[in-house]
Amino acid sequence: MAPVNARSSRVVILGGGPGGYEAALVAAQLGAEVTVVERTGIGGAAVLTDCVPSKTLISTADYMSDFETAADLGVHLEDQEGDEVSDAVADLPEVNRRVLSLAAAQSADITARLAEVGIRTVAGAASLTSPTTVRVEPEEDGGAAEELTADVVLVATGAAPRVMDTAVPDGERILTWQQIYDLRELPRRLVVVGSGVTGAELAQAYLGLGSEVVLVSSRERVLPGEDPDAATVIEDVFRKRGMEVLSRSRMESVSRTADGVLVRLVDGREVTGTHALLAVGSVPQTRGIGLEEIGVDLLPSGHIAVDKVSRTSVRGVYAAGDCTGVLPLASVAAMQGRIAMSHALGDAVAPLNLGVVSANVFTDPEIATVGITQKDVDEHRVDAEVLMLPLARNPRAKMLGIRDGFVKLFAQKGSGAVVGGVVVAPRASELIFPVTLAVQHRLNVDQVASTFTVYPSLSGSVAEAARRLHVRG
Length: 473
Known about the structure:
Blueprint: E1 10-14, H1 18-29, E2 33-38, H2 44-48, H3 51-72, H4 92-116, E3 120-130, E4 133-138, E5 146-149, E6 152-155, E7 159-161, E8 174-176, E9 189-193, H5 197-209, E10 212-216, H6 228-240, E11 244-246, E12 251-256, E13 261-265, E14 270-273, E15 275-278, E16 282-284, E17 317-319, H7 330-344, E18 358-361, E19 366-371, H8 374-378, E20 384-390, H9 395-400, E21 406-412, E22 418-425, H10 428-440, H11 445-449, H12 460-468
Parallel strand pairs: 1-2, 1-6, 2-3, 6-17, 8-15, 9-10, 9-15, 10-11
Antiparallel strand pairs: 3-4, 4-5, 7-16, 12-13, 13-14, 18-19, 19-22, 20-21, 21-22
Helix pairs in contact: 1-7, 3-4, 3-5
Protein name: Dihydrolipoamide dehydrogenase
GO molecular function, one term: NAD(P)H dehydrogenase (quinone) activity
Domain FAD/NAD(P)-binding: 10-337
């Protein structure tokens, strides 16, 4: 049972990432005394080494690709002598300085916001000694350990890159996605191992920055967890832009050579490069922090088992974010944290609904999704009409030089309710919002179609797709 009086409650949060700091803000708003314990910096991996840095790097690569599009639009760059400039060049140390500077600024902004509302932040490594006590070991040598007493505990310790015994990162040539921002030069030939979201995003980012890129994919196509039509578009774009994609190619080992790396594949082939980037998944940071000792149930994967309001198996202990394995998105972590605090402190709350989560892959073009999937329809789990509209027919897309991408809507048969959608386009992360609103509020295709859109606009294709799914009365 949640504490009766939120204003007399003490909340301790392990982890300062999106799940942690968003939960802290809700708890403080409800009047609780809140302490956030974070080892590496407020914002966690999402802000300091993952989402914010990677998307900043990707944005830089996207900007460089605009130079290529400019030529198609009749715009040519010339130097002072009037000679045409054919290539933009990335200064990687300068790019990485900007990336890390933006990440630090975002962390500072979040820290300031927490302080504004009276939330205490403590730098250190936290562990649970009981369901109501948290021990904090300071990061600085010589500091005294501190014991915090809590009425409510939230575990939001996140996840870390998976490391394999046959491919051990060294931070110089063999790298995880958290180590790439220390590179002092652009990799001449980068071998990316893993074609999931992280691998695909960073492979295209470095390709855009000027590296020669080889993408090693153990599956038949890149982005195996995404809409198959969308993944096909992205893989075609990768190949058109010069990336070497090795499908159905499982990595056996990665090792250093005299001047680079050697990636051995299970089938005996060998791939050489100057650097290797490992994107082979992540593992939850749940071991060694007292969870099992106090009775918190962990899944075989090491993730914390939680229900739809973020409760663990131990009363008063909640969990949010990548350490739960529910869905590894910053937005989901934040929602889990907010739901946890609302539930624990007696505020009105709705359980987590993964059916309305919008997600985005920051390739170029981007892939944004919400609701049901093509697989749900193909395997007859949902009875829905599907309409896919290529963006190449959109007038605004023509003006912007966009050739690849589409809008796909899923509408429930009979009612015409929009139950899902996929957008493949530049800034698809913005275009998916009207589809998400439709899915969230069960709008039907006629309601979407009868809503005004700007002409010309990319969002016009969302309305056009809805019009084509019209349900006759």
